Amino acid sequence: MKRALHPPRILLFQRKRWSAALCLCLAALMFYLANYPSAVGASATTRQLPIYCVQQDQKLVSISFDAAWGNEDTQQLIDILDRYQVKATFFVVGEWVDKYPESVAALHQAGHEVMNHSNTHAHYPQLSAQEIISDLNACNDKIEAVTGVRPTLVRLPYGDYNDCSINAVRSIGMEPIQWDVDSLDWKDISANEITKRVTCKVQPGSIVLFHNAALHTPEALPSILETLLQDGYTFVPISQLIMTGDYTIDHTGRQCPAS
């Protein structure tokens, strides 16, 4: 009996069909890989972020100090900043205001911004939205009682946050502020190391993090200010650096004009 001639044709058709399917799969994979970075970026931007820095064409920079514990050098910092005619932003804890109201008043009278660093320096991701709001308002009340100005900015304790924290802050009209240049002065590194870290990392729109009561910050601060001033930077408080109105925050925390 002769073999039918149809099976080879069927096999050839099936091979072509499988080849076409394989090509489609490969094309889909290539498209996914080509667009994967942008997909990740789009996903990252859905997370609620504070402002780490600001997109700036001008050489503007803000320096900030967190005040939560001691008070040994607050007046010294005021004097150094005044010598260079620089205005800074101080984020103070409510309990620090209770202990040192005269220092809070001195900061305000010297022209520096006094902003919120929480009332008790708690870990906000461990609190409910209402607990966060109550904590923020308690600190705001204390600062306003001393300075007459209610804070509009907050630095979250430990730099720790989640979506609930950020949404709670913004629900009462405040803006959460991080930093893109960390002096690491709290580690008690040398004044020279602090200076190098800051001056090498600053770029237009940067927010620099310092702490009051850090061991070597008063020693490092003059050289940092002198270097950046010579590089053409202008120092402004954070409220004057950040944008108002329509803006976006990219996945790195950079505040950018709305397109």
Description:
The longest helix has 39 residues, at 6-44. The model is unreliable at 1-13 and 23-45 (pLDDT under 50). The chain has 2 domains: 1-44; 53-257, TIM Barrel, CATH 3.20.20.370. The protein has 9 helices and 11 strands. It has helices at residues 6-44, 74-83, 94-99, 101-109, 129-147, 163-171, 191-201, 217-230, 238-241, and strands at 53-54, 60-67, 89-92, 113-116, 153-154, 175-176, 181-182, 206-211, 234-235, 247-249, 254-257. Helix content is 47%, strand content 15%. Strands 2, 3, 4, 7, 8 and 9 form a 6-stranded parallel sheet that branches. A 3-stranded mixed sheet has the order 1-11-10, with no helix packed on it. The chain has a two-stranded parallel sheet with strand order 5-6. With 259 residues, the protein is an alpha/beta fold.
Task: List the main descriptive attributes of the protein structure presented here.
259 residues, alpha/beta, six-stranded parallel beta sheet, 9 helices, disordered N terminus
Helix and strand layout, with pairings?
Blueprint: H1 6-44, E1 53-54, E2 60-67, H2 74-83, E3 89-92, H3 94-99, H4 101-109, E4 113-116, H5 129-147, E5 153-154, H6 163-171, E6 175-176, E7 181-182, H7 191-201, E8 206-211, H8 217-230, E9 234-235, H9 238-241, E10 247-249, E11 254-257
Parallel strand pairs: 1-11, 2-3, 2-8, 2-9, 3-4, 5-6, 7-8
Antiparallel strand pairs: 10-11
Helix pairs in contact: 5-6, 7-8
